[in-house]
Amino acid sequence: ISREDLIRAQQSDDTLKPLFFAVGSEKCSDPLSSSYFLDDGLLCRTVVPHKDVSLEPKTQIVLPFTMRDSVLRLAHQGLAGHTGVRKT
Hints:
It comes from Cirrhinus mrigala. This is Integrase zinc-binding domain-containing protein. By secondary structure, the chain is of the alpha+beta class. The chain is 34% helix and 16% strand. It is built from three helices and three strands. It has a three-stranded antiparallel β-sheet. A hairpin with a 2-residue loop joins strand 1 (36-39) and strand 2 (42-47). It starts with a helix and ends in a 12-residue tail after the last helix.
């Protein structure tokens, strides 16, 4: 899927529309919404690991609802690139 297709899918997802509105608003005071941002039109979020403060914040692409199942299946299909307990 192209970046442009992903952006269009995000923008047409009713569950993400409030986030697009919050990100575009300068008066956003919701701490949850404040972790979201647009990267050249692509909705992303910053995740700060709370259990280990030494870890760096991570940037994640926000998936539209219609893509979540397929991405989860892809990530968990078979061993999904894991070589086993002994090698990880």
